[in-house]
Amino acid sequence: MLHAPSADQDPNDRLIDRFGRHITYVRLSVTDRCDLRCVYCMAEDMNFLPRAQVLTLEEVARLGRCFSELGVTKLRITGGEPLVRRNVLWLFEQLGALPGIRDLTLTTNGTQLPRYAAALKAAGVTRINISLDSLKPERFRAITRKGELAQTLAGVDAARAAGFARIKLNCVMLKHRNHDEATDLVRFAVDRGLDISFIEEMPLGVIGDHDRAEAYYSSDEIRRDLAERLELIPTTESTGGPSRYWRIAGTDTRVGFISPHSHNFCGDCNRVRVTAEGRLLLCLGQEFSTDLRRTLRAHPGDDGRVKQAIRAAMSIKPRGHDFDLTEQPIIFRHMNATGG
Ligand code: SAM
Ligand code: SF4
After folding, report:
1. What percent of the chain has pLDDT over 70?
2. Ligand 2: which residue has its CA nearest to atom 8?
3. N or C: which end of the chain has fewer CB within 10 A?
4. What is the CA(9)–ligand 1 centre distance, in A?
5. Are 35 and 81 spatial neighbours (Cβ–Cβ below 8 Å)?
6. Domain spanning 25-338: CATH superfamily
7. Sequence spans of domains, the chain
8. Which ligand sits nearest to residue 200's alpha carbon?
9. pTM above 0.85, yes or no
């Protein structure tokens, strides 16, 4: 996807990869830690990164500035659970003040939103995605291993009360765990004026007690289940991410499907990720990466060097991912370390 540069931007300072894809969207992970342990994301006993290996918030803010000067217009803050990082609000305030950033978004499990939602809105966050896989407290607990449904629901309410528009629920659907709840989750979203996306599980990291091939439930199966009880209208809408959207007739709710297995979305990929340790990942499903932490720390005060490293990395962005649920993962990092 090629876009014309804005008038005040140097056309050489755009991020374009070997396949002509224009990178305008960056997901920044601010921690690999989390207050939950979702079965598809983490092992039960995780070793988290030592603090010195994690980027400081100042370093993340500096990266945000560099990316915005390279034509990036959308930043998503993710993790791990971003809202468990101490002083994270400061980071949102810095990023929210960057002139080139039109969309500053957050992916969260919602548990800390009652505390933070209003302040995030004031800091300039434009949209929030909240992960919610079940509306049944015991199931929610089983999938997250330690979560309280009521706490995440209070987070959804807090985000609505703070005035966020187009809040989106993210649901990872797992066969025999929650696949039968798709319709209830959509009705929950419709009743509250929210959007909702269903995500096919991706094989990131080894998780001993969870069989991914057995748990696989495709987007097409979910859509078929929904269509039995709800009227779905196809749309061509996009929020700049990998979701394909339908609308629920007579409502404002969009239902998205993120389908890395059944509908590969790599052809129009416009994004890259930065892990909590400052590794620039060129693809979610491949290991191609550049160590930005080393550049940040070797050249304090010289953003030119950081931008040069980011620009150079565009030449190693691969054509696409190579996920296979029946094989042991070729990607050994878990989603919390990747920045979902
Ligand atoms: N903690 C936050 C949350 O849960 O929303 C942000 C980080 S989490 C890694 C981001 C998203 O990745 C969540 O929607 C989560 O459901 C999804 N996710 C985690 N592991 C996944 C996997 N193996 N396959 C697909 N999606 C996954
Ligand atoms: Fe935590 Fe989000 Fe991973 Fe669940 S999906 S364990 S909430 S980082």
Report:
1. 86
2. 80
3. N
4. 34
5. yes
6. Aldolase class I (3.20.20.70)
7. 25-338
8. 1
9. yes
